[in-house]
Specification:
about 25% strand; about 30% helix; four-stranded mixed β-sheet
């Protein structure tokens, strides 16, 4: 099948026309209107430095259902020790830049290119992109960021400067999303790191059905997020 080239119009081809690897379209821009339209259809951008903007709709799709989230005993002990202070939306730019610059095993370069950083900072300013920060002794030890629409959180990336800090940030996020009755966390594609938390793969059709339901259920209004007490 051909990979579709996007025009200036905020339109995407049907996701069932994606390539077997999930590649759906190329081009367009990273403006807020296009990004929000993409996420609302289960599509996300992912590309490297020097490449055109690539848009993806993979099948199967990795998801975490908040009520099915699980942690290891060791991680549970670390959480109870309260060695870290966890916040929301207090340092979004620092978190996304941490995700872009902290080396990952087996990766030589990042897909979070500078224009991607600026695009998601803009979504954060508009109240649609959110970060969770993990602090230790006043220093940013790790965190994660993603996009929220309705009752679904689209996880984008996470990083750690201190062992287990991003896992603790994820556990804190899930606990809060459960309080808000979120239906799903979209994890995009399978990884051993996320499968250990109870993530599972579903078909594109199932994901899009559940996405549609999650978008019809109003979630928190766009704006800055805060943890509720005792979350």
């Amino acid at each position: 099948m051909p990979v579709f080239r996007l025009s200036d119009n905020i339109l995407f081809p049907p996701t069932e026309l994606a390539e077997p690897d999930g590649l759906l379209a190329v081009g367009g821009d990273l403006g807020p209107e296009r990004l929000l339209a993409a996420y609302g259809q289960g599509i996300f951008p992912w590309y490297g430095a020097g490449d055109p903007i690539l848009w993806w709709s993979p099948s199967p799709r990795l998801i975490i259902e908040p009520n099915a989230f699980r942690t290891s005993r060791r991680l549970g002990r670390l959480i109870r020790q309260q060695l870290f202070t966890i916040t929301m939306d207090q340092a979004f730019a620092r978190v996304i830049n941490g995700c872009a610059t902290i080396p990952r095993r087996g990766e030589r370069s990042t897909w979070i290119v500078p224009e991607m950083v600026q695009a998601y900072i803009r979504l954060h300013e508009l109240g649609f992109a959110h970060s969770v920060e993990c602090w230790r002794q006043g220093e940013l030890a790790g965190g994660l960021y993603g996009v929220a629409l309705g009752k679904i959180f689209f996880g984008e990336s996470m990083f750690s400067r201190s062992s287990n800090s991003s896992k603790i940030a994820l556990a804190a996020l899930v606990a809060q999303l459960k309080k808000w009755d979120f239906a799903l966390i979209d994890c995009q594609v399978a990884s051993d790191h996320l499968l250990q938390f109870g993530a599972r793969e579903v078909s594109r059709r199932e994901f899009e059905t559940r996405l549609k339901d999650a978008l019809t259920d109003p979630g928190p209004l766009p704006g800055q997020w805060r943890f509720e007490e005792n979350s």
